[in-house]
Amino acid sequence: MAQLEAENKQTGKRADFMVWIKIVGLVYLLLLAVGMIGSGFKWATGGQAKELFEFASNPFTALIIGTVCTALIQSSSTVTSIIVGMVAGGLPLATAIPMVMGANIGTTITNTLVSLGHVRDKEEFKRAFSAATIHDFFNLMAVVIFLPLEIATGFLQKVSAWMVSPLSGSDGMSLSSFNFMKAITKPVINSVKGALESLGEPTGGIIMILLGITCIFISITIIGKLLKVAMVGRAKQLLHNAIGKGPISGIFSGTLMTILVQSSSTTTSLAIPLVGSGVFKVREIYPFTLGANIGTCVTALLAATAVSGELADAALQISLVHLVYNVLAVAVIFGIPFLREIPLKGAAYMGDLAARSKLYPLAYIVFVFFVIPLFLILLS
């Protein structure tokens, strides 16, 4: 019996080891994909990326593009990784910053969909829908506060530029000089570009972008599944241990769990059934969902390491914008008592509406994430 247990334990260790080997390989694929998008974007636009995105020069349009794309893809990590690649290919930072803000809004639709699992029980659905929409209200508030500030002052762009500046001095030293990923990604990216060279510009570049986007989808999707197998059991225990022990513990645990599973949607979705079933209150899981916003920034920072060349600093800068924006949003909104209560009150109101009629949640999802954004794009 003891020998059988030892053999099972050894088999389990080998299986865990193989899971992490696969994760490392998929992270490499993610880095390759971001590099391919950057190279393909630069190739397809002939260096005229700014002109290509003139339609999104209105920051509100860029915000909505980020929101709708993330709502459709159901992954802010995927969208922000694509944005990093596009910045590496010449997408202006002023356009990319609102897109990143929009990705924060779009990712919250997953929570709302998860809450629909409680629709049969009126009281459970009320609690679950409130827990889901608190993330929406927080991210909408963050945009209302920080987007006008960014438009007026370029605050986030300046702060992130200051953070990157030590690695891009006038002596010729830059981030690309220290990019340890360049040596293992650049040869593969150049080989892909060489294979598509005969297609010419812009066809070759467009196909390279599509290949990169496909690889990002594949890598992030499979990484998410593998990490769920490896970590979600522990993550659930972490969630039980952290929620209800104070806001700092909740924020830290939400950040850590999201880094572990590489998906803010997974992190926040784990909390929805617990609130729906009455194990926790909306106020208790509130800080936990905010930590998920911070933890999801790791993917974009990782993606930025794949970028080389003159726009490597810009790619790192947009990933830092994502981090600074989310940290400041938590500090300002959650740190100021009257602002902290607004998402809670909005979520409670939406929970009451959901309890009255199931048509309200459906209308909320369709209008907030699709109809209103598309209408504003057409209007602008």
UniProtKB/TrEMBL annotation:
Its membrane topology is listed as:
Multi-pass membrane protein
Sorted alphabetically, which keywords does the UniProt record give? Cell membrane, Membrane, Transmembrane, Transmembrane helix
Residue spans crossing the bilayer: 20-41, 62-87, 93-116, 137-156, 206-227, 285-307, 319-339, 359-379
One Pfam family cited in the UniProt record for this chain? Na_Pi_cotrans
Instruction: List locations, semicolon-separated.
Output: Cell membrane
Q: Which PANTHER family match?
A: SODIUM-DEPENDENT PHOSPHATE TRANSPORT PROTEIN 2B, SOLUTE CARRIER FAMILY 34 SODIUM PHOSPHATE , MEMBER 2-RELATED
The protein depicted here goes by the name: Na/Pi symporter
> What organism is the protein native to?
Enterovibrio norvegicus
